[in-house]
Amino acid sequence: MSLVCRNLHFAYNGHPVLHAVDLEVRQGEFCVLLGRNGSGKTTLIYCLSGLLRPQTGTVLLDGLDLARAARADIARRVSLVPQEHADIFPFRVLDVVVMGRTATLGFAQRPGPEEYRAARRVLAELEAEALAERGFNRISGGERRIALLARAMLQSEGTLLLDEPTNHLDFNNKYRLLEKIKGLCREKGTRVVASLHDPNLAVRFADSVIMLAGGRVLAAGEARRVMTAPMVSQLYQTPTRRIVTEAGGILFVPCDPGALSSQGVVEQRPTMRWT
Amino acid sequence: MSKALTAGAGATASSPAIGWNKVLAAGLIAALLGSLGIGWVPISVGELGAIVRVWLGAAAEPETAGKALVLGMVRIPRALVTVLVGMGLSAAGTVYQGLFRNPLVSPDILGVSAGATFGAAVGIVMGAGTWHIVQLLAFLFGLAAVGMALLIARLVAVQPMLVLVLAGLVVLSVFNSSITLLKYLSDPYNELPAIVFWIMGSMSRAQWADLQVAAPTIGGSLIMIHTMRYKLNVLSLGDLQATSLGLNARRYRLIFIFLASAIVSVSVAICGQVCWIGLVIPHIARTLVGPNHEAMLPVAVLSGGIFLLLADTAARALTPSELPISVVTAFIGAPLFTYLLYRNRGSGWS
Lengths: 275, 350
Known about the structure:
The structure holds two protein chains of two kinds.
Chain A: E1 2-12, E2 15-26, E3 30-35, H1 41-48, E4 56-61, E5 64-65, H2 71-77, E6 78-81, H3 93-98, H4 113-125, H5 141-155, E7 159-163, H6 171-188, E8 191-195, H7 199-205, E9 208-213, E10 216-222, H8 223-226, H9 229-236, E11 240-244, E12 250-254, E13 267-268
Parallel strand pairs in A: 3-8, 3-9, 6-7, 7-8, 11-13
Antiparallel strand pairs in A: 1-2, 1-4, 4-5, 9-10, 11-12
Helix pairs in contact in A: 4-5
Chain B: H1 2-7, H2 15-37, H3 45-55, H4 65-99, H5 112-125, H6 131-156, H7 160-185, H8 191-200, H9 208-227, H10 230-235, H11 239-244, H12 249-271, H13 277-289, H14 293-317, H15 325-343
Helix pairs in contact in B: 2-14, 4-9, 4-12, 4-13, 4-14, 5-6, 5-7, 5-8, 5-12, 6-7, 6-12, 9-12, 13-14, 13-15, 14-15
């Protein structure tokens, strides 16, 4: 049971974005995509959700070929939380969340009491029942992320694709949201592919990482093993230090411009304490 | 409103709207009775009852025979066509605003009205013998205009909704220029005034024959839109999200555009262009029951019927000669729209 993609190539109007991408994400695995802006993270996520069709290569989700599957069949297995989007009609949060059930509704069907109950239940799981009756356009950016995550969970707990889920979240909310997501992987066996901009969050939460540079996989594998100082430095094209704290946490810190020297990047054990 | 919703656990979106639907349905019946009575020949409610009794064969009252003729041949078909057109244009406006995720969109955005008006003008200039040919041309050109806009957007094929708006602008401008050219070339004594009056829009031509056309086309489209209305919520999130939620966004959008365009084409074919209603009525409905299309579409449809019926009654009763209906709808619609903009300020969508 895994999400597999083999030899994926994708180009927008002849401009290549992804080259020969291979990946495999197992059930219950939290996989993080890392890469600079424009490295192809969002495009890869759209390919994995079947929204974009790669020019060559296949995406297999538990054996289902996304290129041949019906939209509703894909939607029942994979849900997507896109990046911040334009304003929508001032729907209630509950109305937005219940749209997660769209794929199960027929031509003339509308969500009924059962669907609304399920939507409230998912909001409750995220400790966000209080949002249900609020206007989606009036809640904070962090609350919107939670609401969209609730919608994605209602849609499918099999595979979640999250495009920069921590954008616009404050220090506390970033950790809370990722802990929730991590909990889903552990408790419900949800497979998560999320793009993140912060290597510190990735190394703390991810089971595996895929580093994308210029549309190619620079490195992939178990997070703590792959995320070495040289790899992270190469990925972000910034000399970066990897600091291992006493409690075993890992921090990545860009080197001070003044400290840039021929020795480049070092791994050191400072006296700093991880709390 | 939100308190009432929380009270019933698992309450769906439709509960507060049902009250409004009842109020509006009663309002529509009252407006119909009023509209049938008001006019050059006033007919009281008592006389209405008497005439209906005569029609049912329950009484014979020859003194109301003249009024019965006015009622049966003129007012009833006109009122029914007006209500249908008002309902249809409001539904079309709701559909277009939902699809384009933009509350400032009116049903003309893809060039339907301009195409239909051009079709009518062609019919008039060609000297088509009957109104039926003019109406048929109006209907066909209305759909052709939308087809052209969709085709242009398909050829460009990036950012579908944005391109569609621009393609609509292209089509709109081509047909508007063609109308100007036709006016310029037409005979200034007969054809030109006919075209100009057509464009002004009026319900005065409405007859039973129009109802035979409008009932299946506008009525059928209304039923389809009502049935599928929940999908508008999902489509209003945009293609990306609608598709990832499992909706075949392109197919549903095409169906909605076809239904809305058919409504507008038939409306222009029957009574010319009626402005403002498709823009302002969805706003009223959204203000009353919120943006969820499940609840707001029926409210928009009922309000649209009432609005156009009142506007038409005012158009024929206010002055000795009839006012063009668009003048009345604009004089009511524009201030109403301004008020709604003021009322809805800060709703997170301006």
